[in-house]
Amino acid sequence: MTTLVRGGTVVSTSGASPADVVVDGETISAVLDPSSALAASAAQTADRIIDATGCYVLPGGVDAHVHLQLEMTPEATSADSFASGTAAAAWGGTTTIIDFVGQPAGTRVGEAVEQRHREADGQCAIDYGFHLAMGDINDQSLKAMESLIADGITSFKYFMAYPGVWYNDDGKLLRAMQRAADLGGLVMMHAENGLAIDVLRDQAAHRGQTDSVWHGRTRPARLEAEAVHRASALAEIAGAPLYIVHLSSSDALEQVAWARSRGQNVFAETCPQYLYLTLEGQLDQPGIDGLRAVCSPPLRSHDHHADLWQGLRHDDLAVVSTDHCPFCDNEKLLGQDDFRQTPNGLGSIEHRMDLLHSGVVQGELGLARWVETCSTTPARLFGLYPQKGVIAPGSDADLVVYNPTVRHTLSAATHHMNVDGSVWEGLEVTGQVQTVLSRGSLVIDNRSFVGRPGHGRYLPRGIPDLFV
Ligand code: URP
Ligand code: ZN
Ligand code: ZN
Fold this sequence. Notes:
Elements: E1 2-6, E2 9-12, E3 15-18, E4 20-24, E5 27-32, H1 37-45, E6 48-51, E7 56-59, E8 61-63, E9 71-73, E10 76-77, H2 82-91, E11 94-103, H3 109-120, E12 127-134, H4 139-150, E13 155-159, H5 170-183, E14 186-190, H6 194-206, H7 213-217, H8 221-238, E15 242-244, H9 250-261, E16 266-270, H10 272-276, H11 279-283, H12 287-292, H13 303-314, E17 319-320, H14 329-332, H15 352-361, H16 367-381, E18 399-409, E19 428-438, E20 441-445, E21 448-449
One zinc ion binds at residues 65, 67, 323, 325.
């Protein structure tokens, strides 16, 4: 089966230009000048032609940080299954996700990996990979990193937050970083000073300050910045590259920029919520509205936004992922009398490309950087390039036909994520996915979902390509 995506403007890390894309089976076979004889001949022979006139043609989005059907506590599981979450991702122009195998304290890595594969197998509408979230750094889990890399799990998330469940002390973190440096794996860090935060949380609760806004007030940006600085120092000592996940504040970004200016391989991602939402506007709302906005690190004040956009422009922020981890209202309401009891996380898997494209329209980001931060760089950093993240002969035919002029309003009434509320309710964005191919198969066809659970394959990933 050959497909020709014709008449669009292909966007890559080097800019945008008119091009026709030829797909043979699951892969891209040619990218052609639309006025060439080859393009005319492809139009004669293609089995299927997709009209991209007036649209961008993008490499499918790569969302490198999502949590589908994550059992956070016995009472709270993130709302999207592998089936619903990957379908929603496709609706929003994302064709690859990387989720996590979780190894909380006291559990074994091997069993956790097998269990996560069973949960995802046959369910996904788009391709998927896994990181390992290691809550228990010990001889056994450090040893397992080698076989995990052989199985394509080449990145490892560690936590300076969440004492008692995911937290590891600096000595353990250093050992893990040394091991990653030896093996070529990538260290991902949840950088917040969890021990200090827990003191502030408990003090606030004892004073009766239990509303959702206290979730933010007890996780100050200074304690994110301190953790980023400490993680960078440990990574330097270990000789390990470092990737800071879900960076939320100017203070933390300053530490990333400083480490990079010293020549360290420190990379960072931010998420749409830290570019658009605020502590005052969302977290400091009464009842369920505030609880829906509880995530860690927390939403910050508006002052941080400009620095984060600038970080994206200047590459101190290399990636935009979602940290998609929404919970339905009945689970969020577990924290209605005490913010410490609400499950942390919110959902954007469907909206990331549109929210960042709106940043392009607002002049915050160039088109090329949009594609680079949402597709190409995550593919490179997480060992998926050039299979993913680029429109080039030989790459997977993960293509998004994107209409940059459609204006639409985000709402729980119309989104495809399996969650009843939305922190994005009422926000107008510019740009919308029209058609999506995953490895040459239609998943979204002119805004109809035609994909299926099980089309998506597990992606064993290679060693990261760090020098992007
Ligand atoms: O609040 C968040 N970020 N929930 C997901 C878990 C994590 O730390 O990434
Ligand atoms: Zn985290
Ligand atoms: Zn996360």
